Amino acid sequence: MNVTTDISLVSLVSNASVLVQIVMGLLLVVSLMSWSYIFMKMLTLRRARAQTTQFEESFWSGTDLNTLYQRTAANSADTGSLERIFEAGFREFLRHRTGGAMDATAITSGVQRAMKATYQREMDALEAHLAFLATVGSVSPYVGLFGTVWGIMNAFRGLANVGQATLAHVAPGIAEALVATAMGLFAAIPAVVAYNRYAHEIDRLAIRFESFMEEFSNILQRQVKPQNGR
Amino acid sequence: MIRELSAERGVRPWAWLMALAVHLVFVVVLVFGVAWHQKVTPPMQAELWDNIPAPATVTRPVPPTPLPPPPPPPAPVKAPEPPPPTPAPPKPAPVKTPAAADINLKKKAEEKKAAEKKAAERKLAKKRERELAEEIRQQRAAALKEEEQDQARREAEEARRRQAALVAKAAQKAKAALIDRYKLAIINKIKANTDVPEGVPDGLTLEVDITVLPTGEILTPVKVVKSSGNAPYDQAVLRGIMRSQPLPLPTDPELRRDFRTTHLQLKHEK
Q1: Which pTM does this prediction carry?
Q2: CA distance B189 to A17
Q3: Most buried of the four, A28, A125, A174, B112, by CB within 10 Å?
Q4: Chain B positions in Cβ-Cβ contact with residue A83 (cut-off 8 Å)
C-alpha cells in the first residue's frame, strides 16, 4: 500500500515474472547478435566497396590483363570480390586458350559461367546474416509483445486478490511488462534500418559486379577474335 | 562459407565489441538519464476560515510568567555584641602620707576598696544576666524569622504549582483546539471526497473510528461505531474516507500520535 513506489530499471527487471525475464534475456541476446551483425556488415561492406572501387580503377587504367591477373593470383588472400570474379573469368579464358579451343562463343560462355559462379558465391558471402537482421526486425517486437501481454496478465491476476484496486497496484506490473516491449523494439528498429540499408548497398554492388562481368566478357571476346582470324 | 569466414575474420571481434558498447551506452543512458524516482508532490491544501478564530490566541502556549523571586532572606540581624566586660580597674588608693591616721585611713580605704569591689561584682553579674536575656530574645526572634521564611517559601511554592497547573491547562486547551482543527480538516477532506447519493435526508450522522498509519494511509477496514441508519450514506462516506488518503495529519509527531485512531462524526448537511 505504499504510495511512492520506487521504480528503477533494475527493480523493473528483477521483479518481473520468470517468463517475462526469459523473454527479456532472449531479446537481449538477439539484440546483441543483431548489433554485432550490423557492425560486421558495416565493416565488410565498406571494405568490399573500397576494394571494388580500387580494382575498377586499376582495371580501367589500361593495365595489361596478364599482369593484373598475375598480381591478383599472387596475393589471393587480400583480394576483393570483383578481383576474384575477374580472376575466375580470366583463368577460365587462359585454360580455353591453352587447351586450344578456338570457338569464340564457347570460350565466352565458359568464361561467363565461371564468372557467374564466383559472382554468386560472392553475393552469398555479402548477403550472409542479412536474413538474421530481417528476422530480428520483424519478429522481436512480437516476442516483446508476448512478454508484455504475459506480464500484464499476471498483474491483473494479482489484482483480483486485492479488494481495493488503485492505480498504484497496477502500475508497477504494467511497467515491468512494458520493459519487454521496449527491449523488443530496441532490437527491432536498428535491425530493420540496417537490413534495408545493407540490402540496398549489396544491390548496388551486385549491379557493379554484373556490369563489370558484361564488359569484361566483351573484352575477352574481342581478344579471342583476332587469334581466331589469325 | 570458407570465403565468407575469411572476409569476416578480422571484423568479427570488433563487431562484437561495438555491439557490447552500444548496449552499455544504452543501459547507462537509461539508468542515469531517466529520472526513475518520481517524487509524489502532496496535494496542496488550504483551510478557509470565516473569521480569525479566537482560540488562535489560546493555541499559543502561555509562557509561564516568571514568579516574583522569593524575597531574599533578611540578613540575620546581628546580635549586638555584648560589650566586653570591662572590669573597673581598681583604683589605687591614694597613698596618704600622714602616718598617724594611717591605720584608720588604711582601714577605711580597705573598706572602700571592698565595697567598690563588691559593687563591681554586682554590676558584672547584672550585666551577665542582661546578656543572657538578650541572647534568649535573639534566639527566639531568629526562630520566628525562620518560621516566617518557611511560610513564605511554602506559599511561593504553592503559587508556582498553581501557575504550572494553569499553564498545563492552557496548553491542554490549545492542544485540544489544534486537534479539533485537524479533525475539521480531515472531515472537510472526507466530505469533499464523498459523493452523497440523492435522497439522503439531512442530519444523518455516521460515527467511525479511523486507524491511520503515520503516512496518512488508512488501515482497512474502517470501524463503524455508530451507523447513520442509511446504508447508502454509510457506504458513500466510507468510500469517501478511502478516497481521502492520505489524510491531512499534523506534522508535529507528538500531535500525530493522538491521531493514531481518530473518532470522527460525519454529519450530512446540504
Answers
A1: 0.52
A2: 39
A3: A125
A4: none
Phi-psi region of B247 (alpha: psi -120 to 50; beta: other; left: phi over 0): beta
Residue B95 has pLDDT above 70, yes or no: no
The yes/no answer to whether this complex scores an ipTM above 0.90 is no
Q: Is B14 part of the contact surface with chain A (CB cutoff 8 Å)?
A: yes
Residue B2 has pLDDT above 60, yes or no: no
- CB contact under 8 Å between A40 and B11, yes or no, is yes
Return d(Cα B11, Cα B6) in angstroms, integer. 10
Residue A75 Cα, gap to closest chain B Cα (Å): 14
Rounded distance, CA B112 to CA B127, Å? 22
**pLDDT over 70 (residue B36):** no
Q: Is the minimum CB–CB distance between B51 and chain A shorter than 8 Å?
A: no
Of A227, A208, A224, which is closest to residue A59 (Cα–Cα)? A208
Inter-residue contact B206 to B263 (CB < 8 Å): no
What does the block give as the cell for A183? 527491449
Residue of A nearest to B7 (CA): A44
Largest CA distance in chain A: 102
Give just the sign of the alpha carbon dihedral A217, A222, A225, A226. negative
Mean pLDDT for all residues in chain A: 85
Please report which residue ranges of B194-247 form alpha helices under DSSP H: 231-243
Rounded to whole angstroms, how far apart are CA atoms A129 and A67? 36
